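Course assignment 3, question 2. Fill in each field.
Student: A.L.
Task: Predict the tertiary structure for the chain below.
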Amino acid sequence: MMEEKLLYKQRPGIRLAAAIFLCKACRAVLRAFRRGGTSLPGKIALAVYPDVLRCCSCGMKIILVSGTNGKTTTCRILEQGIRDAGIDVLANRSGANLLAGICAEFVANSSMQGIARKQTAVIECDEAALKQVIEHLSPAVLVVTNIFRDQLDRYGEIMNTRNGMRTAIEKNSSMTLCLNADDSLVVSLADSLENPCLYFGVDEGEATIASEEKSDALYCIRCRHKYSYGYKTYGHLGDFSCPECGYARPERQISAKHIIAMYDDYSLIDMSIFGQCREQKIPLPAVYNIYNSLAAATGLHSLGLSLPDFGDEADQVYGFGRMEKFNIGHGATMILVKNPAGFTQVISYLSNLNYGYDLMCCLDDQLADGEDVSWIWDVPFENLAAHERLIGNVYTAGRRRGDMYLRLKYAGFTPAKLKEIKDDRSFAAKLDCRTRPLFILPTYSAMMRLRPVLAKKSRSKDYWE
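Answer field:
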């Protein structure tokens, strides 16, 4: 009987070791065949021992980043800032941000006994998976970038996303919240909670009369009265307030007081950190990347750190497929697009370029993309068609290339410029023959299909590195 009790007590340790071994072995085999090994090893580990993630993350300082857009770029900046401080950091660079992918990273970081090798982690977490992930992790910091309408067939309406994130946050009253002050939905996540909060935002924008973007949050989350805005930056972000109940944008601890200039490859801002201003280079273009940098700066401040000193070459802060450049032909740039808000900002960036280029829009409808592609009709391609003089050929590719072709045709692009590509991988393999820069705008599945081809030709790193 005594031997049976001893064996029972040892079983969790045996199961933990088995889960870790199988996860590491599966990952090694998949990586040997260049298959990534981002999620399957984690699924196996969780099946063998459901508490494996909790064990392998025990004692670590974890910074979790969630939200609709900007998670990957925010994580890369956070990771670089922590590394610059001399701290070895774990990160799910592959973008596998569901429970299984996150689990695989922590197991890979642990010894066979489940002891973590790196003591700090920056983890990107899908907003719909946050409630599940936070059951297994105890993050010290949660950074929330924004909440926008995304794949309706996966996330449902936008309040489903917001409510799920709120439920997750309620499970941990001690973690510091770093929240986008310009997003009324994100700000509401902290209502009546005891968590310490830091807010970031952009302190200037367009007059609302000039803002034609569709809003995902027109009405006050508290009283349903329509918001008024002092200005908007994009989407429903900006200086919001409710004239009925007084719910309004909170004070920002970290903000862009003034956008000095925005160029094709970087921006300059006056950044305020607790009232102390300095000029800051953001090594990424467009307003949404200013927000990503502010989110990262806020997360770093919560750790007592500051933004990294970006040099002229800032490739380290690009997430794969996010403004990622490939040295092929006259240059290829890949920009992931997955919802109307993000695509609208990419169009705004492209519309401000002053040189000629070709465009390739790759639309898929697999589970990771959202099977309902009707969202492309909420993207203002008409704004891009108005700058058609700088655009050479416009290629549509992917499983739903016909839908994209039709959308661009109705947007006003010259039909002679529109061309369907049936085999996008073969097309990507021939980019070195091109005479103009090419911007590739893929949804997630298309990005994962095309990036290995581009990486091989340009000798770039694999997406998980």
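Instructor remarks: The domain at 40-317 is CATH 3.40.1190.10 (UDP-N-acetylmuramoyl-L-alanine:D-glutamate ligase). The longest helix spans residues 2-32.
Grade: pending
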